[in-house]
Amino acid sequence: MDLKATHSSTILTDRTHACNSRLCLPPIVSPISPTASAYPSSTLYPTFQRRKASSGMLNESHDGACLDAMKSSSPPHIKLNKDFISDLAICKNDAAYDAWMMKCPSALSSFKQITNHAKYKKIVLFLDYDGTLSHIVDNPEHAFMSNAMRTAVKNVAKYFSTAIVSGRSCHKVYKFVKLGELYYAGSHGMDIMGPVIKNESISDLPGCTISIEEQGNEVILFQPAKEFLLMINEVQSFLKEVTKDIEGVIVESNKFCVSVHYRLVDEKDWPKVVHCVHHVLKDYPHLQVTHGRRVLEVRPIIDWNKGKAVEFLLEYLGLRTSDDVLPIYVGDDRTDEDAFKILREGKCGYGILVTSVPKQTNAVFSLRDPTEVKKFLKLLVKWKKLETS
Ligand SMILES: [Mg+2]
């Protein structure tokens, strides 16, 4: 089965249409009148989750818990200098990292183990973007991917079905990656699009539609939170307004979620950021806040995440129940843990955490930074070439 497409752009127009009668289902989720019973029983598809506590939970203690999470998800950068104390701190960190690597070894040094397991299997690659393919930068608009990394991704996608899974919207992450042959799962998996598999029916995938991108090519589209779009846009406007006086805050629209970046905010102002976000969200019980690397993500409360997006894409590719598939997911974020967990618990693939500091994780292997990710992708290509020669 040829999983590759030949079109070069996946920028969508509004000419969406349902691709067959199976898709005439109720809305996937509705913020107005959620009816979970309307959905298929398959765990693949999102169901509405009611917030367990009332908006009263958004009080000072909740702010405090949120602040603690912000600090724990934002490890300080180690500044290299010749000061003895800093050198000592680096040694200690290296020792801790080396000890942690015993539990989560490098995917580079474990490459033979990975490829031994991959023999006679179809590898499907899932790659996070920020912090995985691009370095984390102060301004999220400047998180550009190097040409060398783009080439590495392009080459690996020639041999393995490859998807980018990101918190950013599909449109935004596509503008960074610029590779039309890939699948994209933006907005933490709530905004999925990619090449249409020729001669394959998508009739078993409720909610999946076919759309036409700018250059006239067909793409699949799956947006399980589309009923939240207006609400998310409204919240984004409020968040911009209430945080406008906090220096360094960047409120970024990612279609089905809003990212409130505090990377450039002085730590003494973090409580203000938390308070503003909770102040706005107290009127939106169907939205929640999750934590990324120096970012608060406002997103719909639906049973959908990056792990579900991985399952969806495997199903779309006709590989979800296959014994000869090996999904590999590479990511650096807490939100990537949902995907790591699914692969670990299903014993069906490998999660690879990108980190230079020890972290609790469901990943099996690790890579230190995007440079090592690029090296890993190149090794995969080299191995596949040798295997097929
Ligand atoms: Mg990331």
CATH class: Alpha Beta
- Helix percentage: 25-40%
The shape is: globular
What is the H-and-E element order?
EHHHEHEHEEEEHEEHEEHEHEEH
Tell me which CATH architecture applies here.
3-Layer(aba) Sandwich
| Share of residues in strands | 15-25%
Number of domains: 1
State the helix count: 10
Rg calculated over all Cα atoms: 21 Å
Q: Which quaternary structure do these chains form? A: single chain
Main structural class: alpha/beta
Distance between the termini: 20 Å
Under CATH, the topology is which?
Rossmann fold
Strand segment count: 14
Going across the biggest sheet, name each strand in turn: 1-6-7-5-4-3-2-12-13-14
Question: How would you summarize the topology of this molecule?
Answer:
Blueprint (H helix, E strand, L loop, with lengths): L16 E2 L41 H13 L11 H20 L7 H8 L3 E6 L19 H13 L1 E5 L4 H8 L5 E4 L4 E5 L12 E5 L5 E5 L6 H14 L7 E4 L4 E4 L8 H12 L5 E6 L2 E6 L5 H11 L8 E7 L5 H9 L4 E5 L10 E3 L2 H19 L1
Parallel strand pairs: 2-3, 2-12, 3-4, 12-13, 13-14
Antiparallel strand pairs: 1-6, 4-5, 5-7, 6-7, 8-9, 9-11, 10-11
Bound molecules: magnesium ion.
Could you name the key traits of this structure?
single chain, 389 residues, alpha/beta, Rossmann fold, 10 helices, globular, disordered N terminus, binds magnesium ion
Structure description:
- The protein is an alpha/beta fold.
- The strands form 2 sheets. It has a 10-stranded mixed beta sheet, with helices on both faces.
- The longest helix is centred in the N-terminal third of the chain and has 20 residues, at 84-103.
- A hairpin with a 4-residue loop joins strand 4 and strand 5 (191-195).
- Helix 4 runs parallel beside helix 10 (370-388).
- Mean pLDDT is 81; it is low at 1-43, 47-58 and 77-85.
- It contains 10 helices and 14 strands.
- It is 33% helix and 17% strand.
- The protein has a single domain (1-389), classed as Rossmann fold (3-Layer(aba) Sandwich).
- It has helices spanning 60-72, 84-103, 111-118, 147-159, 170-177, 229-242, 270-281, 306-316, 337-345, 370-388, and strands at residues 17-18, 122-127, 161-165, 183-186, 191-195, 208-212, 218-222, 250-253, 258-261, 287-292, 295-300, 325-331, 350-354, 365-367.
- The radius of gyration is 21 Å and the shape is globular.
- Bound molecules: magnesium ion (MG).
- Residues 128, 130-132, 331-333 line the site of magnesium ion.
